[in-house]
Design goal:
By secondary structure, this protein is of the alpha+beta class. It folds into 2 domains: 150 residues, no CATH class; 190 residues, Jelly Rolls (Sandwich), CATH 2.60.120.920. It has 4 helices and 13 strands. The strands form 2 sheets. The protein has a 7-stranded antiparallel beta sheet, with no helix packed on it. β1 and β2 form a beta hairpin.
Length: 366
């Protein structure tokens, strides 16, 4: 009897202990949710603060440029006013002389006689000659050399500003990383250039050794070297292509078989942007993110930024630094490799190669 009672008490204690454990876990999760909400507010405040500071700096730059423009134009206006005043004075001199001549003409009688003495005529002729000489328009000049120098300085300032903007371009270029494609990972229908800087699709199955690292289903190739810290940026020339995929992947991405996890972005191991016949789609973990605002847009280069401190993977149209899509992974759990898929022939429209660009030497955005 006591044993049964003891047994019932033990069961009750177990239920109570289980209940208390569940309550603790629920409280822990509720507290975590509270902390995450606070983190969300903190991140928003931090981002807004950075945006506000940057905005003020741009406003400061605009004020500096506006003030410099005002000073420059005021100086030019002052010089113009001085030259214009000189021209007006010369016109006035000529006007007064013309009035004098008109008066003399009016005083000439109809009788034939000399108009004043020879001395007076000589003095008048001399004064007219001097006036014409002093009022020669070719003698009134602006300082064209100085103005050309001013224009040249303005052009140099514009070129410098253009070389620094977009500022994201300048910043991302400082993160530029060398990318060399690993031919041993390339699908047999892909040709990798000897330098490892381009990949081309061909319908001919290449005579390549079978290796565990080689993709045998999807038209993928990844980079030789990976990275596990810092910030990295790279660009790919996609001009003339109607189908491509590019992004980043852990080395654990599936290489064999027909599972969709072999495709870039279809598993949690990779992130990619896909372009097909004018439409852009971002992928990660099998989740499809359609990008309708980009439909029909064509870019010569696509840039990819990876930031380990922020666990970010960002894609952009490098021509104009147009954001395409950005993933936040929270934390990267392995090294990352760059990944490319040039796509199939797409009814004869997609034979061009995907080529790795030197991101540090990207054409300036005008």
């Amino acid at each position: 009897m006591n044993s049964q009672v003891g047994g019932k008490a033990t069961k009750g204690e177990m239920l109570l202990k289980c209940q208390q454990n569940l309550l603790r876990q629920r409280d822990a999760i509720a507290y975590r949710m509270k902390k995450l909400a606070a983190k969300q507010v903190e991140l928003t405040k931090k981002t807004d603060a950075v945006k506000e500071r940057i905005k003020k700096k741009y406003e400061d730059m605009k004020r500096v440029l506006d003030e410099d423009l005002r000073i420059t134009l005021t100086q030019l206006d002052t010089e113009h006013e001085a030259t214009e005043k000189l021209v007006e004075d010369k016109i006035e001199d000529c006007y007064h002389l013309t009035q004098e001549l008109d008066q003399e003409l009016a005083n000439i009688s109809t009788e034939v006689k000399t108009n004043g003495s020879d001395t007076q005529n000589a003095e008048r002729d001399k004064r007219i000659s001097e006036t014409l000489k002093l009022t020669d328009p070719d003698l009134i000049q602006t300082d064209d050399f100085k103005n050309d120098q001013l224009l040249s300085l303005t052009i140099n300032l514009l070129l410098f500003i253009r070389s620094q903007v977009p500022v994201t371009k300048k910043l991302f270029q400082s993160y530029a990383s060398e990318v060399v494609l690993d031919a041993d990972t390339a699908h047999p229908k892909l040709i990798i250039s000897p330098e490892g800087d381009s990949v081309t699709y061909t319908e001919t199955w290449q005579d390549v050794p079978e290796t565990p690292s080689r993709f045998d289903n999807t038209l993928n190739v990844i980079s030789e070297r990976g990275f596990s810290d810092g910030r990295h940026y790279w660009e790919v020339d996609v001009s003339g292509k109607t189908y491509w995929e590019l992004g980043l992947t852990y080395p654990s991405i599936l290489r064999k078989g027909r599972e969709e996890d072999c495709w870039l972005g279809r598993g949690k191991e990779s992130w990619c942007v896909e372009y097909f016949n004018g439409d852009y789609t971002a992928w990660n973990g099998g989740v499809k993110h359609e990008l309708p605002l980009l439909a029909g847009r064509q870019f010569t280069r696509i840039g990819v930024l990876c930031s380990f401190p922020g666990a970010l993977v960002c894609f952009l149209g490098a021509d104009t630094m147009t954001p395409l899509h950005c993933f936040s992974a929270g934390t990267f759990t392995d090294i990352l490799h760059q990944a490319l898929c040039p796509g199939h022939d797409n009814e004869g429209t997609n034979w061009k190669s995907l080529k790795i660009c030197d991101a540090k030497r990207s054409p300036p955005v005008l």
